[in-house]
Amino acid sequence: MKTIADLLREHPFFRDLAAADLEFIGGCGENTIYSAGDYLARENEAADHFFVIRSGRVAVETFLPDRGPLCLQTLHDGDVFGWSWLFPPYIWTFDARALDEVHAIRLDGKCLREKCEAEPRLGFQLMKRFARMATERLQAARIQLLDVYGQRPPLLGDEQ
Q: How many CB atoms lie within 10 A of CB 54?
């Protein structure tokens, strides 16, 4: 049977971390399974964890009062969800809903924050990974917005 550290070692987000660091981080994790429709996180609720997706699809959503849930992004195998556990007030800013059966490692944010405080070198390594992930997600959102809003019909008189 594989340990949490073994499972983390297989995940792209943790690639190249030392075995001792993976063991250290693994002490904050647990293996979880979510059924289709289950929520991993709910907007405006406490963000106590982050999720390492091993298999399955997760919709990152926000709720629009006049339209219902709006999918902002779909995450898959090899993705990580959640950085709200890093920053006070530790509240989710989006919903995360399983679209099919999802196998994930749920890492306890408080446990990991404490370990990173105790081991600043490891904390810095993780912060760089989360910063890269946040940058990639913001770039993806920008491209999505350009796809939706970038093409405007010509104004009257603009046709040539």
A: 19
What is the residue-averaged pLDDT of the chain? 88
Residues in the chain: 160
pLDDT in tens, 35-77: 999 999 999 999 999 999 999 999 999 888 988 888 888 999 9
Helix axes 19-26, 120-149, angle to 10 degrees: 80
CA 112 to chain centre: 15
Region for 136 from its dihedrals, namely left if φ exceeds 0, alpha if ψ lies in -120 to 50, beta otherwise: alpha
3-state secondary structure of 137: helix
Geometric angle at alpha carbon 107, from 103 and 109, rounded to 5°: 145
